[in-house]
Amino acid sequence: MDVLSDVLLSVRLAGAVFFDVEARSPFVTETPGASRIGSRVMAGADHVIGFHTVTEGSCWAEAIGAAEPPIHVRAGEIVAFPWGDANVMASAPGMRGKVNEAAYYRPSDQQLPFSLRMTSDQSADTCRFVCGFLGCDARPFNPLLSALPRVIHAPISSASRGWLSSLLHVAVQESGVDSAGREAMLAKLAELMFVEVIRNHMRGLPEDARGWFAGLRDPHVSAALRLIHGRPSEPWTLEGLARESGLSRSAFAERFASYVDVSPMQYLGRWRLQIAARLLEDKRMSVAQVAAEVGYQSEAAFNRAFKKHIGTAPGSWRRERMDRGTMEGQ
């Protein structure tokens, strides 16, 4: 079981590219925080992440209000803001722009991305970048979000740079009658680029790093995570996971918690609820069937666990999600 892929699929990662920007110095664009525009750019998403990919030239990126210094982003590199911070892309560090929140919406009468040209000085070097958003579920359990830093800056790997950059270039260059499917293509590319960012982030972690991503590199913790994600409905015990991971019970429990910040059994329980939340959206499955599917011996036990962790009963969660989906489709 590829644990990272399993999580990305379960939390319903979805992307969209909103702006294709061509700029010459001096320039600055400022993106509002996800708390202000998230519902407009990624309707229905619990959590929204902003990102920028530079395709030509270079510029500076900065999360507003964060302690991290400005980052120099070059062609072929991506910068993402997993916490949903307001952020700036500019020709020089420290610049600030005027925010136009009205520009952040999904148009019904034209395709994304919007094209922006900022060319006050024709003799200045050109920087071109695309800006977009990624939406995902935050509840019941998304282990990625708490493990990601406030800002991620990563190159597209050499293995992926050729095909990914070519597809991105073709997609943003298309226009007119031949651009059918461009928006969907860019949405999928946004998701691929984010996976690239995460993979590079994980590869670049120091040897002594802790956290969920570092756990994927640890032979014992990763073995347990593969078991939990591969067979979540199995009646796992701490002893069973420890044995399969090649450690004693106490050593395994301590090692798992040091990486993942929760005990193995807490992680298993939360992941089961994440799967259950997705299954509840299938109207053909009863709550009892969902409970059995994720390993609960009784519907009552499932109801108690779901309400304790999420704050609402499974039936209420299902109704809320269906009502929200109906409203979004109107």
Strand content: 15-25%
- CATH level-two architecture of the largest domain: Sandwich
The H-and-E topology, N to C, reads as HEEHEEEEEEEHEHHHHHHHHHH
Gross morphology: globular
CATH class of the largest domain: Mainly Beta
Straight-line distance between termini:
38 Å
Into how many domains do the coordinates divide?
2
Overall helicity: 40-55%
What is the residue-mean pLDDT, rounded to a whole number? 90
CATH topology-level fold name of the largest domain: Jelly Rolls
Structural class comes to: alpha+beta
What is the number of helices? 13
- Report the C-alpha radius of gyration, rounded: 22 Å
Structure characteristics:
13 helices; single chain; four-stranded antiparallel sheet; 330 residues; Arc Repressor Mutant, subunit A; alpha+beta; Jelly Rolls; 2 domains
Description:
- By secondary structure, this protein is an alpha+beta fold.
- It has 2 domains: about 200 residues, Sandwich (Jelly Rolls), CATH 2.60.120; about 120 residues, Arc Repressor Mutant, subunit A (Orthogonal Bundle), CATH 1.10.10.
- The protein is about 45% helix and about 20% strand.
- The strands form 2 sheets. Strands 8-1-9-3-6-10 form a 6-stranded mixed beta sheet.
Entry summary:
This protein has helices at 3-10, 34-41, 143-147, 158-173, 182-203, 212-217, 219-230, 238-245, 249-260, 264-279, 287-293, 299-310, 314-329; strands at residues 14-24, 28-31, 47-56, 58-63, 71-74, 77-81, 87-90, 114-118, 126-136, 152-155. It is of the alpha+beta class.
